[in-house]
Amino acid sequence: MRFFGVFILLFFAVFCGVSTFCAAQSSTDRDQAIKSRPFHMGFTRWPPELTLEGQARADQFIEDHADLVALHFDNGIPWPEAHGLTRYSKNVMERLTYTIPEGKKLYVAVTPINLERDGLAPYWAERDGLPLPEPWNKARFNDDSVKRAYTKYLGDVVERLQPDYLCIGIEVNLLIEKSPGKWADYVELHRYAYEHLKKTYKKLPIFVSFAVLHLNGLADGADKERQYKLVRDIMPYSDYFGMSVYPYMSWDVPAPIPDDFFDFARSFGRPIVVAESGYSSRNVWVSLFLLSGSEKLQNHFLDRLLRAAVRDRYVFIVNYAAIDFDKMIGSLPSNLRGLAGIWQYTGLMTSRGKAKPALALWDAYHQLPYYSPERK
Which residues, 6 or more positions from 163, have their beta carbon under 8 angstroms from its beta carbon? Predict the structure, then answer.
């Protein structure tokens, strides 16, 4: 759910019910699945429109249909301020201010990698996405200054927002394809930040997320064997295996997705989270290329995801967009409308307020009582 552009970030799957997954379970698992769920369920605050009303709609949807809120900060780091221990800009301070709704868990995602996933994140000051100033525009991921600044910033994020879960690298495996020579430097930065944060926040789960299509060789230019080999470099320093998954974006993924689509995640030996996900309920075009979607395919995707989450005891699931944002597209600069449109129908409710079949499935799980299982 990336590459949308700077300004958007400033504002910020029923044909079956719970019983659908029961037939695939043993009798013991079936009884447990019916009675409770082992994972939290949430959305980001991504609005259907760039208005206060749009933001209010997203927040109310989360209140009604989730027990987790996801905050993504994916277009900048206040590098000089964090390094020099000086005050952050008003914009940074305002966006790092959030009151967690009662009864909700908070998941926060931050990354030192830029939106293009090929280098250091840009500068965040009076707005995000600013060009890196000197000397940061020449800095490497493993420079001492970058390590110290990023770790200091992460600590400030934790102190201000008090998250229950913290992602410190978003879709990090894209760097392997986009700029492979920087991977070792990035892993060094990540290890440094992870180990330092763990000294202070011992009980806070800290992890990174991986783009599933690239990881499994289902995207142009992605090498699955290389991805798996290099991703395992970082797993000793990630408490969870985090997935970013949008299957409809690859022609190499069958539609509907196969029943075993999520089985691979168990091989990484960590508790599993869905850091972000979505499936388009309508066909969308990328230039001259069609990405197929429908409400039936969206519902099937969510059904298979929730089945896997019950079976493998996921920690949480995030469907990135709560509500379709097709109404937002027209307010965007023309050069960004096509790209942003890829994700515009991934919400569980239309922009006009009509619930999709997938929302009834989601709610059937959400209404089950949560239990916290033992995880290795």
Answer: 71, 106, 107, 108, 157, 204
pLDDT above 90 covers a percentage of the chain that reads 85
pTM over 0.85: yes
pLDDT of residue 376: 66
Query: Do residues 123 and 132 lie in contact, with contact meaning Cβ atoms separated by under 8 Å?
Result: yes
**Is the Cα dihedral 8, 121, 190, 92 positive or negative?**
negative
Q: Does an H or E element contain 285, and which?
A: strand 284-286
The set of residues, in sequence order, having a beta carbon less than 8 Å from that of 4 and lying 6+ positions away, is 115, 336, 339, 340
Tokens encoding 189: 């930065």
Residue 85: Cβ within 10 Å count? 9
Q: What is the pLDDT of residues 289-344, one digit of tens each?
A: 999 999 999 999 999 999 999 999 999 999 999 999 999 998 887 877 888 899 99
- Reduce the DSSP state of residue 272 to 3 states and report it: strand
Domains in the chain, start-ordered, CATH in brackets? 7-366 (3.20.20.80)
pLDDT digits (tens, 9 = 90+) for 24-48: 333 334 344 458 999 999 999 999 9
Distance, in Å, from the CA atom of 358 to the CA atom of 295, rounded to the nearest integer, reads 7
Q: Which amino acid does the sequence have at 129? A: G
